[in-house]
Design brief:
By secondary structure, the chain is mostly beta strands. Helices cover 2% and strands 47% of the residues. Strands 23-34-25-30-31-32 form a 6-stranded antiparallel β-sheet, with no helix packed on it. Strands 24-33-26-27-28-29 form a 6-stranded antiparallel β-sheet, with no helix packed on it. The two termini are 26 Å apart. The structure holds beta-D-fructofuranose. The site of beta-D-fructofuranose has 14 residues, from strand 1, strand 5, strand 9, strand 13 and strand 18.
């Protein structure tokens, strides 16, 4: 694997032409996605600043242009009218060079549209020449012309009672008229993850520290809490965050989880009272740093999108100098004490052609490279093997055990194996059995929605040339569609 020097990782982008050669090489990769957002070159990670503004959805993501490395981060800008088809707009926020507050990266954050501008809140990742880190909460303003204007001074710096890990501002509106809150992911000096709360009456000035969010029962729950957010959905509050360096039974050696706690938020007392345990948002192998759109009108819903990847691991395309993509956007609702995640209804527009299933002599059918497979499942055991060879062998197995009432996704049969330390299986109990599966397949990913969003498994897969069939066992009623492309491969920096 390539070893990156600090100079290579943090090189400033001066001219888009510097990336042409890299782009020409990457665009030919068999693993480039057709309906998931991915970076033009290099690495993408967290989605940022997700809002509805000027008749379209705006979304940004963390982007390091130079290769599959967490180096100098920028905000890259994409837009969509329907959350299905996306358009690249190019890089939006670039790190300021040398002395700037964000000289070593424009880190994650959120956005709020007011009037004819979108306000972008982000973390300025600053390093001194001796590489000491300082986190600043910064603001930029973006108008219809697409040019961001950074405020010359940060809104505030890091709080001295916590470690240097303070980042990912999430702006919260609508709690009280004329008051705004901001959440910052942080870590106590004892290295316990937490959330800091800031407040202001003006989006642009006067932010002051209100205190640390109290979450009874979660005082020592992993290190730094990345990308925290509190969403109000259907009259319930949901705290969504990514606690670092935490082992969760059943999740292999993975230390990276994105999850949520349902509960009640008291903004005056700065207390989030949990209503139950921490739930993993997505049971698959590759999902992290989920972000909800900031101005959804429907009080019963949220729209969430996540990075289809996790930190501290490598992916097979690293060797091709690119990595990462985003998940499909999902509609979040609350059912009982759980979040339900469903593909947006608009995604049905992607369906191109209904494919008639014609099993070959081994009982395997051809799997298109971009497809949706929907299955009604009746009682009994179920096995669905995706990305098998033409004999129906190997691949990714989805199996439902009707006795134990649990569903398992097992990737051990795939030829391209990676991140083995994270394990090869993920299991989730299904109290009411398995009734329905909706599976979205792109060239290098699979998203499995179980029982209308009761559970989701999102994973990257890198099928080889021989792995383009599938096979099913059980009492099933399957439908298969090919899907249209929804993202464009184009050189736009
Ligand atoms: C989460 C994260 C954030 C940070 C960003 C940097 O994946 O580590 O906490 O702002 O990525 O790219």
């Amino acid at each position: 694997m390539k070893e990156w020097t600090r100079e290579e990782k943090y090189r400033y982008l001066k001219d888009p032409q510097e990336l042409v050669g890299l782009y020409d090489r990457i665009r030919g990769s068999r693993y480039r996605q057709t309906f998931h957002n991915q970076a033009v070159t290099g690495l993408m990670n967290d989605p940022n600043g997700f809002v509805w503004f000027d008749n379209r959805w705006h979304l940004f993501y963390q982007w390091c242009p130079w290769g599959a490395v967490h180096g100098l981060k920028h905000w890259y800008h994409i837009v969509s009218k329907d959350l299905v088809t996306w358009k690249n707009l190019g890089v939006c926020l670039l790190p300021d060079q040398e002395e700037g507050y964000d000289n070593k990266g424009v880190y994650s954050g959120s956005a709020m549209p007011i009037g004819d501008k979108i306000y972008l809140y982000y973390t300025g990742n600053h390093r001194d020449p001796d590489w000491t880190r300082h986190a600043y909460t910064c603001l930029a303003r973006l108008g219809n012309d697409g040019w961001p204007e950074k405020y010359p001074l940060p809104l505030f710096g890091a709080h001295h009672d916590y470690t240097e890990n303070q980042r990912d501002p999430k702006i919260i509106c609508g709690v009280e008229e004329g008051t705004y809150y901001m959440l910052i992911g942080a870590e106590t000096k004892e290295k316990h993850g937490c959330v800091l709360v800031y407040k202001s009456e003006d989006l642009q000035h006067g932010w002051h520290f209100e205190g640390e969010l109290s979450v009874p029962g979660f005082e020592a729950f992993g290190n730094m809490w990345e990308c925290p957010s509190i969403e109000r959905i259907g009259g319930k509050d949901v705290l969504i965050f990514c606690p670092q360096h935490l082992s969760i039974p059943g999740r292999g050696g993975s230390q990276n989880h994105n999850g949520y706690i349902m509960g009640t938020m008291d903004w005056e007392k700065l207390t989030f009272t949990p209503d139950g345990q921490f739930h993993v948002l997505d049971f698959g192998f590759d999902s992290y740093a989920a972000a909800c759109a900031n101005n959804i009108e429907d009080a019963d819903k949220a729209v969430l999108i996540a990075w289809m990847g996790v930190p501290d691991v490598s992916y097979p395309t690293d060797e091709e100098d690119w990595a990462g993509c985003l998940t499909l956007p999902r509609e979040l609702t609350v059912r009982g004490r759980r979040l339900i995640q469903q593909p947006l209804p608009e995604l049905k527009k992607l369906r191109e052609e209904k494919v008639e299933l014609r099993p070959n002599e081994f009982g395997a059918c051809k799997l298109p490279e971009a497809a949706e497979l929907e299955l009604d499942c009746r009682a009994g055991h179920v096995r669905v093997h995706l990305f098998t060879d033409e004999r129906g062998e190997g691949g990714l197995e989805i199996r439902y055990n009707d006795v134990k009432r649990e569903i398992t996704v097992d990737r051990s049969g795939l030829k391209t194996r990676f991140n083995l330390q994270e394990g090869t299986e993920r299991t989730r109990p299904l109290e009411n059995g398995l009734q329905h599966l909706r599976i979205f397949i792109d060239r290098s990913s699979v998203e499995i929605f179980v029982n209308d969003g009761d559970a989701v498994f999102t994973s990257r897969v890198f099928p080889q040339e021989t792995e383009h069939h599938f096979r099913m066992e059980g009492d099933l009623f399957p439908r298969l569609w090919t899907l249209k492309p929804a993202v464009k491969e184009e050189f736009l920096i």
